[in-house]
Amino acid sequence: MAIRRSCPTEQGQLNEAAQLADQLQVVGYSKRDIARIINRDPSLVSQFYTKNKGAAFVPALRQVLAAVQTGGITDLPELADIASQHITRRTTASGAKARVRSKAVLITPTGSGTGRVGSQAIASGSARLRPLIAEAARLGLRLAFTVRLAKTGYLHSSGSRTDSPGIRRDVIQRADHTEERSYGSASTGGFDAADFARRVDAAGGDVTAAVHQWLAETGRVRADAHILHLEIRTWRPRDAT
């Protein structure tokens, strides 16, 4: 009969990464949230408990926990920025930086796909969102996006029918005087992904610039507004065969 090996959790010996993850969960963050903070797949966070992984993320998790507990920072993109400054890529036996296995852009058979970036990626053009938009365009999908700006960056008040949301349920107001607004949805038809792909191409592949240009052209944000968070969502139109 095969012998079942017990995991660290069962032995009552959680490693430090798991202990820090536990403390973050106590204050309200899920394993998925923690994965977003360290920019990894949620399955890796589970492996802190089951496979004793996570040592490389301990410095980052310490800083994130301190930011939450003493700094009062709760926003995921901000915590992700803090974490990124304390995550060091592992090295190979020769001392070279190990390659990081990047998560492939996934669009389901129903056309559902999501990609999001925080301030660090936005500053470099949100490049990892470009493949999602390109694939959505190839498949003839619809697209919607959510942006986060300083409240003063918007030209219309939240809930204004002149702006795309029209109703407050598509607006999230934050304590740091920023606001998230969603543009496009399945109920309103969203946007043609192919059109946005062309905009991104015209902007030299800069997704941030393409989205900002659309927002400015359509009179929704000030020309000097700075995007702090960007999320892209896709789906297949109902009349598609």
Description:
The protein is an alpha+beta fold. It is built from 10 helices and 6 strands, in the order ααααααβααββββααβ. It has helices at residues 8-11, 16-26, 31-37, 42-50, 58-69, 76-84, 119-123, 130-138, 193-202, 207-217, and strands at residues 113-117, 142-150, 171-173, 178-183, 191-192, 229-235. Strands 1, 2, 3, 4, 5 and 6 form a 6-stranded antiparallel β-sheet that branches. Helix 2 (16-26) packs parallel to helix 5 (58-69), helix 5 (58-69) crosses helix 6 and helix 9 crosses helix 10.
Structural class: alpha+beta
State the shape: globular
- Oligomer class: single chain
Q: What is the helix/strand order? A: HHHHHHEHHEEEEHHE
Give the CA-CA distance, first to last residue.
Answer: 52 Å
Query: Which parts are unreliable, with pLDDT below 50 for 5 consecutive residues or more?
Result: 1-11, 100-104
- Share of helical residues: 25-40%
Radius of gyration: 20 Å
**Biggest sheet descriptor:** 6 strands, antiparallel
Report mean pLDDT, rounded to a whole number: 82
Work out the strand percent: 5-15%
Output the number of helix runs: 10
What's the β-strand tally? 6
Strand-helix topology:
Elements: H1 8-11, H2 16-26, H3 31-37, H4 42-50, H5 58-69, H6 76-84, E1 113-117, H7 119-123, H8 130-138, E2 142-150, E3 171-173, E4 178-183, E5 191-192, H9 193-202, H10 207-217, E6 229-235
Antiparallel strand pairs: 1-6, 2-4, 2-5, 2-6, 3-4
Helix pairs in contact: 2-5, 3-4, 5-6, 8-9, 9-10
